[in-house]
Amino acid sequence: MLGRPVSYRTRSSRPENLGKNSLHMIANICLTIFVIGALVVTIIAATYEPDDPLFQSSTKITTFLTSMSNSTFQSNNTVSRTGEDLMAAKQTALATFGSGTDAAETKETNSYETSSSECKVDPKEPLDCKDPEVFQLMMQKAIERFKDIHFNRFGKPTPGPEGNTCDMAWRFRPKQGKATGFNKDYRRFVINRDNCTVSVVSIGEYHSGVNARKKKKKNKNKIPGYEPASGLQDQGGFSLPAAGEMVNDSLPVVESERAFIHRKYLIYVGGADRCKSMKHYLWSFLCALGEAQYLKRTLVMDMTLCLSSVYTSSNQDEEGKDFRFYFDFEHLKQAASVLDQDQFWQLWDKWQRKDKLSLYVVEDFRVSPKKLTEVKHSLIMRKFGFVEPDNFWYRVCEGETGSVVQRPWDLIRKSRRLMDLVAAIGSKLNWDYDSVHIVRGEKARNRHLWPNLAQDTSPDALLSTLQNKIKDGRDVYIATNEAETSFFEPLKHKYTTHFLNDYKELWDQSSEWYSDTAKLNNGAPVEFDDYMRASVDGELFLRGKKQIETFNDLTNDCKDGVNTCNTAAI
To answer: Residue 154: which domain range?
Structure first.
């Protein structure tokens, strides 16, 4: 029996299929090459770190000044309790530093020399502070002198009172610490010019370069109907003040009758929020501001607040405290539509009948802002009664409203006058210090809720705890509510200690803070109260290179009393 032929061809190897198979093979090879190439590009893109000037440290800036460079500071985190931290990322992204490209480390240069062919300067003429070589030298020497800060931006130098002096301003923040808000400084440089060589002889003290302190510029993007807000703004709407600017927190002014009647307003009246803690005040105030923004209305606000007795030296509630003593009203009026209620009622009484301005009153906090969006009246007035807690403003933002009305925390920042004190003290310490927050006072005396706090914050216990956390001889800023700083005298044997009261000259009768706040207070002096002290103390604590907390590092007691640690952690 004859069998089948030995040679056998599959269907795929038949001549008529060879062309089709070749095309499939080529397509598969091309697809494989494309996938591999895309993978390689993705890996390179994910791991490549370009010399982006927005992510360089001030060390890189130093190299720019002796070659061709371009850099700025690195960002870090913050735990600030107001809105500065919410804007930090945007501010960092917008901050620029002159021009140039990044370069490698170079040796320090103490002076700049112009070639003989270009040197035609008369030594008798005043120094040209705007000369690029002088400007670069001043920037370099500032960076070399202040090694513990990140420089954000330098202002253009201006002539000082003498022919050999130049004033220059800059914005900065400490290299280490949890705070991200910018500080400003302006100093006087004494510059020596010997033939074609210029060198920096000395740099003045904090805020010595007064000629570089820029005045406010009017903002072209003004809010219709009000005087122009001051400062610079980006398209996102938040302010980015230039280094060395003065504070301009004057009240917004309505320009005309037409401007007033064409706007819609919201006001909160009554309630029991006054004279409560500052946290309570902000919680309620920001609810009102959030609703005004949701309804696209101007918030009519009381520029005075009642300071709770817990912050006053008299131990009594004190009325008539200006909002601007504690918070940055300049930033608020730039970013939100607000109007002082005293001015509002004057204009309302003047034009209400003539222009038939209408009033819509809401007496139940449970009336949702959604229901008020259709209200066409000129003024919506929320009235609050006398029964707590239903007469607290913040009740408006509870329940379902909380998902609609968002509290604009980014609009509340600490007063720039208080932040200037922080910058002044930090500069005196050269931003090279560690910080310790020591809570005592009422909590240390209450052994029932805080059984170990008094002992754990005693001088002997502090020395024992800090010896493994802070090196001997370091400058240590102690933020504390202990009235007698002599209590911490034993710590001076190991550390150079600093307290807020060591810098009283910054708010005494001869200080700029004293005169500025008195102007806001109709010429009457303003007390540097305990809330202001706590604000400055807290900001200085956050700027320490090392921060030692009371309830995490010094004692095992709970911050809010016995058996509350787990609750606080949730």
So the answer is: 132-206
